[in-house]
Specification:
The chain is mainly α and 241 residues long. The chain has 13 helices and no strands. α4 packs antiparallel against α10 and α7 (93-113) packs across α13 (213-240). The protein is globular, with a radius of gyration of 19 Å. The model has no long low-confidence stretch (mean pLDDT 85).
Length: 241
């Protein structure tokens, strides 16, 4: 665990040293703030003390931002050759993957933390469903963790950051949109299967304040599979060398 945390801290520091963290925070807060308060889902015009508009905007914003954040995590180290130096130290492939996952997840949590003034403002405007809002934030965190694991996997199989970014977007597109569209075009078992695979289905359930075991298992499964495949990719690389 100590090695994982050391890697996470190193990666998190590199985010801020390279200005990636600042750019992410500014863009995320800019997009979410503009579309939540000024355009589209203007809370004041709607007249409801709810953050559902923000959750809907963040649902799409993070979908594009996370692949951009994760594309360099392993791809850059493979391209520069520093991944070999890292893996020859007293750390396992699992600790490397877990550390890099943790650093990205912490950065996303920091970004969400900066939106808490939205919550405070809404609470002062009118009566809010605190449980629903907290579940909405939880849904964003689970979705982010799932896409970070996918981004880590795509970053582990290539040394080209653009390829890693586009691959993560392509895979994420199925969970974000395509499975949901297919679910609406099929009935019976097939339709139910695609509906179950759709990330939007589980996100909406959580963001409405309904915590269901099947939704938690869904997100944890994606996270586990993504991290497992990333670890497996690093292991195969060492064996081949």
């Amino acid at each position: 665990m100590k090695a994982t945390w050391i890697i996470a801290k190193r990666e998190l520091q590199s985010f801020f040293d390279s200005l990636i963290a600042y750019i992410l925070l500014v863009l995320f807060l800019g997009f979410s703030g503009f579309f939540t308060w000024l355009y589209g889902s203007d809370i004041f015009l709607i007249g409801q003390a709810s953050l559902q508009g923000f959750f809907g905007i963040a649902y799409w914003t993070l979908f594009f931002f996370i692949p951009a954040l994760t594309m360099r995590l392993l791809a850059e180290e493979k391209k520069t050759g520093t991944i070999e130096l890292l893996l020859t130290k007293a750390v396992t492939d699992r600790q490397v993957v877990a550390g890099k996952f943790l650093s990205s997840f912490i950065l996303i949590c920091i970004a969400l933390l900066f939106t808490l003034p939205y919550y405070v403002t809404i609470a002062n405007i009118g009566k809010v469903d605190h449980g629903s809002i907290l579940c909405g934030y939880f849904a964003l965190m689970m979705m982010s963790a799932a896409y970070i694991s996918i981004g880590l996997f795509t970053s582990s199989v290539t040394n080209n950051q653009i390829v890693a970014f586009l691959s993560a977007l392509f895979i994420g597109l199925f969970f974000h949109i395509i499975f949901g569209v297919l679910a609406g075009n099929f009935t019976g078992f097939t339709g139910e299967l695609f509906n179950t695979l759709s990330l939007g289905t589980h996100f909406e359930s959580l963001s409405r304040g309904v915590i269901d075991t099947k939704d938690i298992i869904y997100f944890i499964s994606i996270i586990f599979i993504g991290l497992f495949l990333a670890e497996l990719s690093l292991t195969k690389r060492k064996i081949s060398e």
